[in-house]
TrEMBL record:
Lineage: Bacteria, Pseudomonadati, Pseudomonadota, Betaproteobacteria, Burkholderiales
Ranges annotated as spanning the membrane: 44-62, 69-88, 94-112
Domain of life according to the entry: Bacteria
Keyword Transmembrane helix among record annotations: yes
PANTHER family referenced in this protein's UniProt entry, alphabetically: MULTIDRUG TRANSPORTER EMRE, SMR FAMILY PROTON-DEPENDENT DRUG EFFLUX TRANSPORTER SUGE
Principal location: membrane
InterPro entries named in the record: EmrE-like (IPR037185), Small_drug/metabolite_transptr (IPR000390)
Mode of membrane association: Multi-pass membrane protein
Species of provenance: Achromobacter veterisilvae
Family statement: Belongs to the drug/metabolite transporter (DMT) superfamily. Small multidrug resistance (SMR) (TC 2.A.7.1) family.
The name this protein goes by in its record: Ligand-binding protein SH3
Compartment list: Cell membrane
Alphabetic keyword roster: Cell membrane, Membrane, Transmembrane, Transmembrane helix, Transport
Amino acid sequence: MTMAYLWLILSGACSVAASVALKSAGAGPSTALPAPLLTQALPYLMAVGAYGLGFGFYALALRQLDLTLAYPLMVAFAIAGVFGYGLLSGAESISAMRMAGAAFIAVGVFLISK
């Protein structure tokens, strides 16, 4: 059963990686010169790959955990990862209201797991 939680953490981490890749793709190139097609497509390809890998980890977790527990935990790990990215990178503003919302989600996931 312990491995199932590791799979959920890895699935959430893949979701975060995919979201960060999509965010960077949306930022676009910083120069006026057009970038080669592969360079433009690379963040999208990375996001698809990360989502695919995360799907595989999630499928492994579902072999051992109930769906009603696995999904909220996986999403909670992803939310924590996105907040961690925002705090560490400084690329996102994290307000007290957002932190309170994340705390409420964490409490809800804790209650679901009992």
